[in-house]
Structures are given as C-alpha cells and as structure tokens.
## 1
Amino acid sequence: MTCAARPTLSAPRIAIAGAGIIGLSCALELARRGATITLYDPNTPGRGASWAAAGMIAPAFEAASEPGVHPKLFDLCLESARLWPGFAARLEADSGKPVGYAPGPSLAVAADPATARHLDGILNTLAKRGLPGDRLDVDAARAVEPSLSPDLLGALRLETDGHVNNRAVVSAFLLLCERHPSITLEPTPAPLHSRGSTLDSDGHDLILVTAGWQSGALKVTEHGQQVSLVNWDISLDEIDTYGGQMLSVERRADHPATTLRAGPIYMVPRGSELVIGATMEPGRTTGMPNTDDIAGLLSDAAQIVPSLADARITSTWSGVRPGTPDFAPFLGRTRQPNMFVAAGHYRNGILLTPITAQIIADQMLGAEPGDLAGAFAPSRALPAQA
Ligand code: GLY
C-alpha cells in the first residue's frame, strides 16, 4: 500500500470561495508559488463587483483624505498602485491580451468651494509625503482636458491615479486560471463542513474566503444543517453593502480622454466608451439601474463636461461594494486557523488586487505578516478582549 504524501505548507491544497478579481488573482499567485487550488463560485466568475467597477487605480483620490478610513489604507493603496505597472505587464505577457493599464495623471476637479477644499486636503497629504500633485486653475485644467467646463473652480492633477480596463483584467485572469494545471474552477458554492471544532472544505489544507459582500453569507454544513460562516469568524459579519449604479456612453472626440473625478462623480475612458459613475447606496444589494438615477449621474457629469449633455448612453448597470467599518479590506488569517480572508475592498478592489494577492499568498504559504499587511488582519473588527 502506498501512502499519499501529506502536503507541506509550501505546496498546500487550497479551496477558494469566490471567483471575482480577488479570488482569481489570489488563485493564480498561489498556484504560481506551488499551491494546488480549487476555486469555487456558483456565479459566473468575475461578473460581480469586479465587472461593475470602472477600473480606477486611485490611491490619492480614494484614500489620501477620506474621513473615517483605516489609518494605513492610503499606504496600502499606494503600495498596490506601485505594483500595478509590473502586474499589468505580466498579465498581458502571460495571457497575450491587452488590459488597458493607463498610469496617471488623472484630474480631480472642483465645481464648488467644498470640493475645492477637499482637493486642498488631498494635496496637503500628498505634499507631506513628498508625492506629486499640482493645483491647476481652470485654464490650466482645460489645457490638459479641453472637454472640461470653463465654469469650474480649478483642478488637482494626480500623478498617482490612473486606470485599467477591469473587464479585460478579469478576462485575462480567468483565461490564465482556466489554463493553469494546478487550478480547478468549480461552478458551485465552496463545500464547507464543520468537523468538530474545525472547518473543512473537502480535505483542502487551507480555505480562502474571497466572496466580497457575500463572504458572511457563505454556508457551512453542520450536523446536516446549513449555518452561516460568520460563526467561524464574526468579522465576516462586518462587511456591509454599498450599491452603485453606473452608465457608459459612446465616447466622442469632444468627450474626456483623461480620467476625471468631481466629488462623487467620475468619468473613465474605456475603449470607445466613457464610463460614468456612480451612486453610493448603503444597504443596496441588487436591482436594475433606476432611470432617474442614471439620468441624474449623466446630468451631474454634464455640469463638468458640457458636451456630455447629448451623449448616447450605451449601457447601464449596478454593482455592490463590500465595505468594512473602516472601509479597508480584511486580509489574512481568521480566528479559524485554516481559514483566511481577502474581502471588503469597498471602492478599491481593482486598485488593491496586486497587493492583496501578494499579502494573501505570503501568509497562506507561511510568512508572518509585516507591519503593513498585519494592520489589515480581520481581527481588528473583533471586540477587544477584556
Ligand atoms: N471605485 C469607485 C466606486 O466604487 O464607485
């Protein structure tokens, strides 16, 4: 009788629950480092928040001066933005598909004094860190992006903030995962079972939860009953939903060629289209886009770029952002020693994909988290022990 070798920690069998951009990229990184992966998702891979996103890589606009966010979120975002050029180049080389990575700059514009003050706050944070960022008056902003309204109060040029075609990225990852001999995609929910005090997924050595806002809703079979995965780590219960509606329009020569931010509105060129977002709707998880909300977004965008007033809408959609209490992801080992989580990326899932894959692969293959990664452990959401 031959005895199957027990997998070592350097080549574990890993079950991943959730095949969005985070699950796909973690699967690929872990498989490249020697792990064998089963990637479970009952829905079409990559068609949730990863598909709905606009593809912004925007550390400065999203994290430099946002009240209430994790104190190290900006560092994490900057670090991941620095990884993006190499990450995109490798993805393109390996898949043979372009992913539309465009480094900065993008322009954040102000149409009112409150937004202008917000831009000053971002500039202040950038300056303290020695990072580039230029305040432009409206004429200088229009020299960069002629489609902007002459009525704006000014702009901030953000060298750190760019974009990528998130749908192309997801498609490239899916291709690479499907091709990889050590990755199996299963179109089913992850089979999770309670075994005494431990959690099992069909004998895999480790489990990674990457199901975004649905992470806490994953089910575990216990004594024939379906119970919530939250029972194994209550931090998963702290991922709330923030719906967002968006649209794309046919991009004309008089429409923006630059990524623009204007308070809650953004515009991102994607091929022959311009993506315009987004509403922010706490608690919303599903639903068709609402005609009035979409008209409102387009009308707000046309205040910034007047030529959008008669733009032809090509598509509308909605997505769900998964948000933790400090709007930063949960990354790392959970209270269940064989279970890890990478979820809760909120508005920054595309931006944070490279650093997430790196942190998760390091930790699941045995490395202790460093200072930055350790700051995003899911245990921060647990009540402090007396
Ligand atoms: N990343 C932009 C958004 O979540 O709307």
## 2
Amino acid sequence: MEKDKVPHVVILPLPLSGHVKPMLTLAELLCDAGFLITFVNSDYNHDRLERVMDIPAFYNRSPGFRFVSISDGLPLDEPRLGPIIFQLFFNTRTVSKPLFRELLISLRQSTKRSPPTCIIADGLMCFAIDVAEELGVPIITFPTHGSHGMWTIMHTSNLIEEGEVPFQEESDMDKPITSIPGMESLLRRRDLPGNCRLEVENPLMEFIISEASAMKRASTLILNTFEELEAPIIVQLGSFFDKVYTIGPLHALLKTRIKDSSQSVSSCGSLRKEDSSCMEWLNSQPLKSVIYVSFGSVIELSRDQLIEFWHGLVNSRKPFLWVVTQDLVEGNEELGQISEELEQWTKEKGYMVSWAPQEEVLAHPSVGGFLTHSGWNSTLESIFEGVPMICWPQVADQQVNGRCVSKLWRVGFDMKDTCDRFIIEKMVRDLMEDKREEIIRSTNEIARMARGSVKENGSSHCNLERLIEDLRLMSLTN
Ligand code: UDP
C-alpha cells in the first residue's frame, strides 16, 4: 500500500472516562490492524492518562498511535462529575468544535503522517459531523451506549410529540411507554432515560434531541454490543444507518485479539489508579460469595444514600467489595459518626477500595453478584462474566439498561427509584441466594453467547473484520 493510503483514523470520544475507555479499546484494535490512529483526548483526561500510564513506552510498542488533546472548556482542577457534566456537554459545541476543526486541518497539512481518512466520533460529539462534512472526511458515529439505550434516546422527540414525555415524578411511574417501536411492552415511565424527567425546555433536553437527530447524518454506526443480545433493535437501527457494526463486548474482543492485553492502553482507560489489593482479599473469600458494589465514575451519592447502602449491605450478611471513590459523596459531605456495627462488620467481612480493576474483579470466582449503577460498560462486563446484577440506575441510558437487565435478559433485579436499607438487604439476599435460581440460567446462557460473539467466527469478531476492511477501502477511495 502506498504511504499516503495507510488508513488514518481520528478518534474523538466524549471526554468522560466511560466513553474514553471503549473508544480507546477500538483505537487499539484498529492500530493492531496496521492503521494510524490519532486519539483526541481532552486536556483534563490526557493529564489523568499520563498519571496512570507510560505513554512513551506505549508509543514504542504501537508506533502508529498518537494522542493529541484539546480543551473541554472546564477548569482543569474541576472534577468531571455530577451536574458539571451538563456544562461539559454544552461546551463541546462552543469550545471543542473550533479546536477540533483546527486540529483536523493541521493533521491534513502535516507532512509527518498521511492525512486522516476517517473520523470515528462519539454519538454525543455530533459537532464533528459538521466539521467532517465541511472538510470532506468520512465520519462514523459511535455512541457508547447499548442498542436499547441508544434507540430510546433517538426517540426522545417522538416521546414528546406523542405526549409521553414530560411527566411529573409524582405521577404513575409504572405507566407503560408505547411510542418506541420494538420496545412497546418493555419500558415504563421510570425506565426512560433520566433526562425524560426534565422539563422539555431544559437545555439538556435540547442537547439530547439535537444530538440524536444529528447522529443520523453519519451513515455508519458502531455499537459496543453483540448481535445475539439486542438483535431486534439492531435491525431497527439499520433503518437509519446504511451500515451498523456491532463489535462488543469490546473489552473482551481486545483480549481475544491482542496477546498481552495487560500492556494495553485501554486497561488504563478509566483514567484512575486501580487498587489491586482487593484481588488478594477476593482470593480468601468462598466461591460466588461476594457482592461487588460500584457506581462508576460520574455518579454522586448523598450522605444518606451512602449510609442506606452501607446498612443494607451489612444487614444482608454477605461479604462485599465496595468501590468508594474519593468523590462519591455529593459535595464531599462528611459522613459523621458511623455506627460501630457498620465499622466492625466492614472490617471483618467487607473491603473498600477507591478504584478496582473491575474487569478482573468480575472475572474472579469469589464474586457472585454486582450492585451497579447500570452504566453500559459495567453492564456488558458483568454480562460477559456471567455475574448477575442489582441495578440502581441514575442518569442517561442507565434506566433503560436496568430494565433490560431485569425484564428482557433476566440477568438481574432492578432497584431503581428506591434507596432504602431494607430493600437493599432483601435485593442482595435475593440475588445471592433466595431468588438466584430465577436468573442464573439466563445469566449463564447470555454469558455463553457473549463469549461466542468475540471468538473467531463469532458475530462481533466478524463485524470487526468487516469494519477494518471497509475502513481500508475508504482510505483508498478518499
Ligand atoms: N471501573 C473500574 N474500576 C472501578 C469502577 C469502574 O475499572 O472501580 C470501570 C468499569 O470497568 C467500566 C467503567 O469503569 O469499564 C465504568 O463505565 P460505565 O459505563 O459502567 O459507567 P460510567 O463510569 O461511565 O458511569
């Protein structure tokens, strides 16, 4: 292949770690296929990445890979969690768009590397579609949600037109939602994405609606899911996009294709330092006895919620491993006096870390359940390892994911809209013991399908091959 025909893919994630991680994984897989990669981080995330990985050593192993960074418009010392994230969304259009345009022009003019032949941009970074169209570079959209979450978000404006949104939180939250094709008997009001609880005039609603609409201007869609899990909705998505590539679970696909994935950059994709001491603690626990608890990277709990979870876990009398990030409690509120019983039980039967090697934790034989906020990465990782879940979704696609987990795939229970120590205790007991029978067969079956999808000749494996081939062809015609 001529030098100037080497595929050069520019990858642009939404600058939040739950979006950066799957994008980095895809970037690594494409780099492994011989492509040049330019990965566009925010300055904030790049700084965090540099703290957890040796980037020059990574460049030595992967000479085709380069990071660049642009501002996300927020101060560098401001943690990206809670409501500030909405500001980050709005900044993408005002701050990131002109910077990305400049970057793309400079990449095209550079004599060091061949010019970009394709952009892969997050589904919430649709300003990139304007830039790509203006500069004549093909673009693919990669919303990092699952298909059901994505399909629901794409129907936000239909929900408003049909009068199903907005609704008051005090109204009948179990009322079925009927205007999303293919999901008529699945969702209730409470299962709609968090933003559907806002006023229609809220700027976040406007942002979601316009991003969902703009996304369709990219003719090609990548999804981090697998056909066997979400086939009917993937088919529906095919009516909006010329090509749909389902290539998940990406973290597992990477492990099947890259020999030493412990050296991979995406293993640092959460941008936080992992505390691996919990693996030793897990080694000392009985088989399938531990409930793993994590609420991901952006959710904050009130002090009262944290205390309810703590009591519920302790009262369930099951050993737990809990990720308590430094900024988990809203406004860093002091916890105050903690009862001796909580302290004592946690010392004897619990383990807390500020960040866990989650993929390894979920794969550990001692882990029997996952209490999660139902972020899509966590959901897929748990599905892959055959670990049933208790869902406590809060924002975005998490509510939809929780509903799919409990009602559609039957791989867990959904606890949404409650946070009460008695319910938490009961849910943990149900998951680990009393009602485990109800879900364990489907959990194992879906895990088997997930594993099959990333093996040679599996659906996601083949779809990635197709994507690589199409990106190559694109670079020849571009
Ligand atoms: N994660 C991790 N260690 C932790 C908690 C989470 O490595 O202690 C990773 C997890 O494996 C997942 C990601 O962080 O890949 C969280 O993504 P998700 O979409 O579930 O939630 P978000 O953080 O975006 O809300």
## 3
Amino acid sequence: MPGPDVANSWPPPVKRILLTADQIQERVSQLAAQLQRDYAGRRPLLVAVLRGSVVFLSDLIRHLNMPVCLDFVQLASYGDSTCSSGQVEVLKDLGTDIAGQDVVVVEDIVDTGRTLAYLVEELERRGAASVKVCALLDKPSRREVPVRLDYVGFEVPDCFVVGYGLDFAGQYRNLPYVAELSPQAYAPQEE
Ligand code: 5GP
C-alpha cells in the first residue's frame, strides 16, 4: 500500500486511467438493470460497505426503478498474507434487523475477499432470507478467501486504484474515473 506522502496533491498523480467515467456509468446502469430483473416483485435491502462504496451505491440506486431500502456497515480488516488471522472489526454496524430480508451487499472492490467473507457470513447468521454481492471492482489475482460475487462491474489488475469512491489516504474518492496511482505516490518525497 502506498504511503500518505502525496495525499493532498491535486490533480492526483495518476499512472493510467483504468476506467473512464463513461465506462463506469454504462456498466453501473447495466448492473442496475440486472438487479431490477432479478429482484422484480421484491424489495431488496442494499447494504453498502463504508466508505468506498458510497459513490457506486448512489449511482446504482438512481437507476433502480423499484422499491429498495438502504443500510450501511463500516468494517476494518486486519490480517494479510503474512499475518492471516483474517480478523474483521465492525466500526459501524447495521441499523436494521435483516432477518427475512433479501440483502444485496454493495462493495467497491474485492481484494483478498476477507472483508466480504466475514460480512456475508454475518448477514446469513443474522437470518437474511438471501445474501447476494454486487461489487464494482474485482481483483481476482489477490484473492485469499473464496467469495461468490453475484454482480461484478469490472475486473482490475493487481495494482492500487483510486477514484469513484476509492481513496488513497482519505483522498481522491471524488474522482469520476478509476485510476492506477503513479509510482511517485508511493515513493518518499524529495526534500
Ligand atoms: P479485502 O478484505 O477484500 O482484502 O479488502 C477490501 C477492501 O480493501 C476494499 O473495500 C477497499 O477498502 C480496500 N482495497 C483493496 N484494494 C484496494 C485498491 O486498489 N484501492 C483502494 N483504494 N482500496 C482498496
């Protein structure tokens, strides 16, 4: 992961744009159409994972011409390939009783899969009628824990991406595109 050295620079030090705003918007409307078909006659509860998925969620729901409810969770994942306890901490819990509800988890990006695996298991444990996952981005090359993704926007390569909700040290969530950060973002700054 990059360090926070360039976290306040603008425009962001982008190496390449992976997904343009137009590509994202087109795909988001396709995902919404799929959801609308699959959940016809039902009222799914969309559970967005803070904070990265808020931009995706807000675009997605405006394409949904059907009843939906929203809720939010915020999770922190500790544990990586070298220290794989896979510990996930709940920073903000749901405000809804999800028992009997058709839940769709809305996630920005699936990397190791640890966060999502924990969340899906927890939602099932709480008695959701069904749990499906809608992820904007998938980094399959990084997967450590198997997770089923029911709706995926795009696959991305193993690089650190920012924009469209995804941050670098808290910045760049407001970019309308998804980009790979330039290596200068990772390097220590010259005096
Ligand atoms: P996982 O539990 O799948 O390893 O972690 C998923 C979370 O890691 C995402 O929700 C996101 O917050 C963060 N993450 C993983 N890859 C990236 C990336 O390329 N860019 C950014 N900004 N966050 C990432």
